[in-house]
Automatic annotation (TrEMBL):
This is Transposase. It comes from Streptomyces spiralis. It comes from the Bacteria. The lineage of its organism: Bacteria, Bacillati, Actinomycetota, Actinomycetes, Kitasatosporales.
Length: 70
């Protein structure tokens, strides 16, 4: 609603539009937070079967990534 009013040339505040909408009844869509796939504390950490060694003598020699979110 706010964006449409601004595009139409009105100068309004987001809070004013929210207040009027709350009084009149229409409600905007709630933006849901992003759900994470990994939740700490649920299970024990998986064993390191690959025996990764991420120590490096110089910068930019070893790169490490995490694919749990992909």
């Amino acid at each position: 609603m706010f964006i449409e009013l601004v595009r139409a040339g009105w100068r309004v505040s987001v809070n004013t539009v929210a207040k009027v909408m709350a009084e009149l009844g229409p409600a905007g869509r709630k933006i849901r937070g992003r759900r994470s796939l990994t939740r700490p504390g649920r299970r024990a950490a998986a064993p390191d079967f690959v025996h990764r060694d991420v120590t490096a003598e110089e910068p930019d020699l070893v790169w490490v990534g995490d694919l749990t979110e992909i």
